[in-house]
Amino acid sequence: MSAHLVFQAPIGSIIAWSDGMPRPPERHRKKLSAWKSNNSSGRLIRKQEHRAVGDTSLPGDFTLHEADHGAGGVIAIRVHRTFSTDSTLRFSVLERPALGSVRVFNREGDGAELVYLAAHRADAEEWLSRHGYPRAVLDEVTADELAGDVVEGRSVA
């Protein structure tokens, strides 16, 4: 699907992207590294609609959380990838957040990012008690939102 249709997926979905090229052999390390940057997956954590800044028009974009790197339970690096809705890559929804799960956003309003996807409200509140997000917002995944994934008579996935 196109990058525009990712906007139909709920925040918290696992999204895969691909350039359509076949995976190179393991022995071609540089080619494989380049291929991996254009063929991976991540959790949808932010969507931002088309906007205008002065005389400049910026296309919509969305951000995926690809990976965490660290040791001993400490995350040292978070890998986020932001894609424009003009991207030529192909996207697909691999998984949607479960009904009843609770999304924890870092703040209210536009530009808010998903920081944790909890199995239920108690899990979200317990996670928040251990992490420093004083302006966090909890948002439960509803059946109406998941039912809204049908676009033009076909499933987004």
Quick tags:
single chain; alpha+beta; five-stranded antiparallel sheet; three-stranded antiparallel sheet; 3 helices; 41% strand; globular; disordered C terminus; UCP036055
Explain what this protein looks like in three dimensions.
InterPro entries: UCP036055. With 157 residues, this protein is an alpha+beta fold. The protein has two domains: 1-96, no CATH class; 98-152. The protein is built from three helices and twelve strands, in the order βαββββββββαβαββ. A five-stranded antiparallel β-sheet has the order 6-5-2-1-7, with helices on one face. A three-stranded antiparallel β-sheet has the order 9-8-10, covered by helices on one side. It has a two-stranded antiparallel sheet with strand order 3-4. A hairpin with an 8-residue loop joins strand 8 and strand 9 (114-118).
Provide a compact summary of the structure:
The chain has 157 residues and is of the alpha+beta class. It has two domains: 1-96, no CATH class; 98-152.
Chart the SSEs and their pairings:
Layout: E1 14-18, H1 29-38, E2 40-48, E3 51-53, E4 56-58, E5 61-71, E6 74-84, E7 90-95, E8 102-105, E9 114-118, H2 121-130, E10 137-140, H3 143-147, E11 150-151, E12 154-155
Antiparallel strand pairs: 1-2, 1-7, 2-5, 3-4, 5-6, 8-9, 8-10, 11-12
User: How are strands sequenced across the largest beta sheet?
Assistant: 6-5-2-1-7
Structural class: alpha+beta
- Average pLDDT rating: 89
**What is the overall number of helices?**
3
- Alpha-carbon Rg, integer: 17 Å
Low-confidence stretches: 150-157
* Distance separating the two termini: 8 Å
- Domain count, please report it: 2
Biggest sheet descriptor = 5 strands, antiparallel
What best-fitting shape do the alpha-carbon axes yield?
Answer: globular
Q: Roughly what percent helix?
A: 10-25%
- What is the strand tally? 12
SSE string, helices as H and strands as E: EHEEEEEEEEHEHEE
- The percent range for strand residues is 35-45%
